[in-house]
Amino acid sequence: MQTLTEIKSLLADRGLHPRHRLGQNFLHDHNLLRKLVDAADITPGDVVLEVGPGTGTLTEALLDAGAHVVACEIDQRLAQIVRDRLVGCDALTLVVGDCLASKHALADEMLDALRDAGGEHCFTLVANLPYQAASPLLATLLVHHPACIGMFITIQKEVADRITAQPGGKEYGTLSVLVQALATVQRIADCPPSCFWPQPKVTSSMLAIRRRSFDAGPGLRSSPAIAPFDPIALSQLLQRLFSKRRKQLGSILGRDVHFPADIDPAQRPEQLTVNQIITLLNVMPPRPRS
After folding, report:
1. How far, CA to CA in Å, does 99 sit from each of 58, 248, 270?
2. So where are the chain's domains?
3. Section 217-230 average pLDDT
4. Which of 24, 36, 146, 217 is the most exposed place for a label (fewest CB within 10 A)?
């Protein structure tokens, strides 16, 4: 793996500096990087998506584990560093551009690269994610791309706390319910600012998000603990509920909704468990998909 000295040298040799607006804080702690790769449990030939490879520290570790890596880098300067270091590597596909086409859609070029690499039916996200891309990327992968079976990521601790939050707290919201309904979540480690260069002003966390094993028919998701549901409909309901999180359910959804016995119309969205929200979803009249 690249050392901090090597990372700085790779940039300095090209007259480059980290770009704050792109969230370029390079993780250089080898122990933490190994924890992330180990948690992903990569076997030779696995297709791995990496967003924000930077100078390629994690990329090289993933390749060493035998993965075919599709790396998406928005910064052409850093993409050139990765290209120069890994020239001739058939197990790497480098996509230069934004990973997202919009807040709810992945970039076509990245999707094409995943398909070409054999990840159409199964791939894993392993990445030190740029902070601004983390939430929309995770939500999009979970809701619209069931081929993504796991996400092993470094993200801002504040976002990790939202993902793992339980009902009743201010962190509990759309992302909490969406992730917990569709996946299991494990916190691998917390990463202090000193593990990065330049040092960010916030602590980061590593999470292992493993998609639940579902088989409830086309377009439906279920698990032993959760009733079958439509992920897109769930996402729509969550946006509707948590955009007015301080209002009562009856006010948000209307008094004509037949609320299940264990849900009081006077409750607020943040008071409902994941299972209660799924139950509520399944008694709601269908709404047009946006």
Report:
1. 17, 37, 31
2. 4-211, 221-281
3. 57
4. 217
